[in-house]
Amino acid sequence: MGDRPVIGVTASFVKKTDFSLGPYTHRDYVTALLNADALPVILPIAPEETADAYLSLCDGIIFSGGGDVDPRFFGESPSLYLDTFITERDRIEFALMKKAVAAGKPILGICRGMQVLNVMYGGTLVQDLPTEWKNPLQHDQKVPRKKASHSVRLLSGSRLSALFDDKESLYVNSLHHQAIKKLAAGFRSAAVAPDGVIEAIEHETNDRILGVQWHPESMASGGDPMMCRLFRHFVSQCDRIKEKMV
Ligand SMILES: [Mn+2]
């Protein structure tokens, strides 16, 4: 038990009442990591100088879902349909991501986390799919979070499709209103929705950098075998890094 890889999971900040406010991470991240034999550690929003200390605790990091990215970071002004954002969260996540990559520690960007990844590497975002995308499908599903709602086509030859037995397509859940507009240089799109929205990205050369627009943690904690496999794969990458560093 003592040598499970430690996976940091970034947190948002939520106010429930005046007496109840603080770091927030959906429990499905915790469940999915525990089920994959990893030890989850929640990383609250903190000054970006904290990134080094956070990283030294972790063998890998999941950049979790949450609110919008502050559009200043991709050179845009807020659109009328932008949702709330926390600039401090963006800053600590960019710092943490940069340092994790430099240290060779695996990173998995989920939903917002994939968008943060794209922006950090110089890409841009659609601020609001329903108003900015031509003929969008429903990316903000009304069915429960654990259930898949739309299909994605997997890019043949991608690491993601290899992980999923070279399947051509897959059903995923969808809880986002933003998406990648310009894909960052050095990345390829590994999965695409029927309306053309990019649903997964992978670094062209670094196999420790992956982003998915859907929520595999919720599908995995609901028992979806493919998403359990995605978590086990990420945890095993973190485990190998850990062994190398001992
Ligand atoms: Mn979607």
UniProtKB/TrEMBL annotation:
GO molecular function: gamma-glutamyl-gamma-aminobutyrate hydrolase activity
Keyword Transmembrane helix: no
Keyword Nucleotide-binding recorded: no
Annotated keywords: Hydrolase
Pfam families reported in the protein's UniProt record: Peptidase_C26
Cellular component, GO annotation: cytosol
InterPro entries named in the record: Class_I_gatase-like (IPR029062), Peptidase_C26 (IPR011697), PuuD-like (IPR044668)
GO biological process, one term: polyamine catabolic process
SUPFAM superfamilies named in the record: Class I glutamine amidotransferase-like
Family matches, as CDD domains: GATase1_2 (cd01745)
Top-level taxon: Bacteria
Annotated PANTHER family: GLUTAMINE AMIDOTRANSFERASE PB2B2.05-RELATED
Name under which the protein is recorded: Gamma-glutamyl-gamma-aminobutyrate hydrolase family protein
Organism: Sporolactobacillus sp. Y61
